[in-house]
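Design a sequence for this backbone.
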């Protein structure tokens, strides 16, 4: 006698994104795993008296979506602090700071973030805007891309930062005409104030994780790689995993301190491991900054506002020779290495380091990846496939919008600007793609990213297509958010596709992405999210 399923979802298109039937309408689940994929009639014998039967009513079923580069704990903490992500311009941001300060008179510091560079002239908000609403307490607000901070005069004075303070080697203090700090601190300069912030309490970090997890589940994300796991964040994950609060599958990328070298590897080895659905098996190295503040490491110089070369080619945060040595050591110790590389020089330095590691250690299955890959030199595109390095893309950024058109393209020059986000070139060259959001830098919604990957334009934004030859087919974009990221996280044997024997990590959407015009993908909503057959998110419309 056939043992009944615990859960059956039927009556809608099932997109397996794997070798299971190309056309299916039903999935059966028992004990958290998929036991059948096929037509409604195929699963009917598995329905028993206690089986939960979900009528898809024509709505689509997809594998659980996965995010290869995200910061949910940071995002969650920001959500419960001074959160500027819902602001639309400088005025709304300042009003939000005022409202938060008034609502939290006991807070010694006003901290949080989520401001956008395109709200301010030159992308650099002034301390005076904050002074007008919070003159008596220090304020430190991180840019939504995480590569800078906006501070007030009180914070600068409290931390002893003035006109005589030199720029750190890995950052820059934006200055007024007399040399006094203007209020924007780029890259490593942010730490001049940030290191003075009180460390959030353990319960606040755990609440931040839970808030971040709820948001990710609401957009269909069932697994991710956290790209910045400090010891405090790791403790929160372990607490959540051991107590059953962690309902997602998470790989933690342990943070590499760029001010230190290989002496930190024993500490990272001591932290490797995990519990439940959390594993700390990756190491994240930030090799450069971002193009908008001229810290992304480029092979050619940035231009100034007049279109003339400046001599500035950005920053390599880790010396390339040291990067090769460190990655070779990490590779030998069995770590996956996850490198932030926005500029083409940073991407080349990372590829050179991975090539050196392979030469020293031989091939392995660590599945290293390079995130962002905003600008890649054409000579380096085929090296991703040749070296087995996954390109972890953030598709939502590959479009015309103010930050791209006003703060990036004019300062890169036409040749470098034309090499941005080369998803199509990488795919044609045989590279593996994984996809992520970098939330809270941008929206965590995978369908917004898939929309841009396919259209190279933001829904409701500019109608001008950004480098159309770099568009992805819908299946390739969906695969990057499912099996591509599952592979990076060593979860592809259990997740990433809808196949018999795999975990029932599933997503129900309000529409079939294959049955709508490409320019409607961004409107897709997640109605239900399942992890091992247990519903972890339900939209009221479902």
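Sequence:
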């Amino acid at each position: 006698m056939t043992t009944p399923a615990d859960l059956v979802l039927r009556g809608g298109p099932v997109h397996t994104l794997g070798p299971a039937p190309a056309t299916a309408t039903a999935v059966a689940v028992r004990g958290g795993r998929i036991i059948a994929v096929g037509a409604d009639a195929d699963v009917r014998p598995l329905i028993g008296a206690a089986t939960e039967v979900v009528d898809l009513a024509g709505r689509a079923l997809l594998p659980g979506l996965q995010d290869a580069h995200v910061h949910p704990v940071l995002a969650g903490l920001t959500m419960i602090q001074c959160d500027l992500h819902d602001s639309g311009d400088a005025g709304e941001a300042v009003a939000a700071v005022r409202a938060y300060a008034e609502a939290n008179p006991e807070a010694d510091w006003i901290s949080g973030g989520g401001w956008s560079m395109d709200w301010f002239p030159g992308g650099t908000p002034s301390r005076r805007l904050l002074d007008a609403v919070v003159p008596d307490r220090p304020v430190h607000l991180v840019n939504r891309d995480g590569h800078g901070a906006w501070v007030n005069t009180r914070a600068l004075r409290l931390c002893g930062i003035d006109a005589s303070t030199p720029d750190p080697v890995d950052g820059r203090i934006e200055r007024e005409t007399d040399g006094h700090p203007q209020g924007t601190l780029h890259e490593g300069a942010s730490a001049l104030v940030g290191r003075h912030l009180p460390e959030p309490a353990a319960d606040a970090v755990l609440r931040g994780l839970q808030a971040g997890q709820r948001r990710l589940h609401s957009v269909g994300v069932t697994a991710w790689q956290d790209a910045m796991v400090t010891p405090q964040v790791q403790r929160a994950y372990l607490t959540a995993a051991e107590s059953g609060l962690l309902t997602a599958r998470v790989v933690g990328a342990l943070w590499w301190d760029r001010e230190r070298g290989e002496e930190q590897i024993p500490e990272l080895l001591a932290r490797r491991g995990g519990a439940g659905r959390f594993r700390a098996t990756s190491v994240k190295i930030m090799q450069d900054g971002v193009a908008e503040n001229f810290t992304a490491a480029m092979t050619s110089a940035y231009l100034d506002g007049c279109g003339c070369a400046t001599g500035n080619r950005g920053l390599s945060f880790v010396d390339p020779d040291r990067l090769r040595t460190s990655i070779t050591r990490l590779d030998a110790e069995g770590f996956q290495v996850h490198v932030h590389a926005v500029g083409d020089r940073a991407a080349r330095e990372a590829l050179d380091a991975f090539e050196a590691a392979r030469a020293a250690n031989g091939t392995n299955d660590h599945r290293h990846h390079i995130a962002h890959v905003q600008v890649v030199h054409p000579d380096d595109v085929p090296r991703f496939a040749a070296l087995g390095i996954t390109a972890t893309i953030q598709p939502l950024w590959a479009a015309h919008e103010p930050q791209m058109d006003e703060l990036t393209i004019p300062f890169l020059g036409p040749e470098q600007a034309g090499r941005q986000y080369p998803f199509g070139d990488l795919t044609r060259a045989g590279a593996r793609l994984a996809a992520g959001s970098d939330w809270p830098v941008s929206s965590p919604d995978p369908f917004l990213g898939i929309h841009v990957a396919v259209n190279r334009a933001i829904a409701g934004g500019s109608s001008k297509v950004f480098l159309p030859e770099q568009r992805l087919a819908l299946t390739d974009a969906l695969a990057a958010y499912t099996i591509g990221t599952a592979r990076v996280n060593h979860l592809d044997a259990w997740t990433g596709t809808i196949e018999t024997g795999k975990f029932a990590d599933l997503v129900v959407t309000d529409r079939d992405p294959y049955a709508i015009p490409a320019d409607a993908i961004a409107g897709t909503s997640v109605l239900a999210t399942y992890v091992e057959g247990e519903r972890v998110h339900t939209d009221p419309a479902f």
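The first strand starts at residue 7 and ends at 14.
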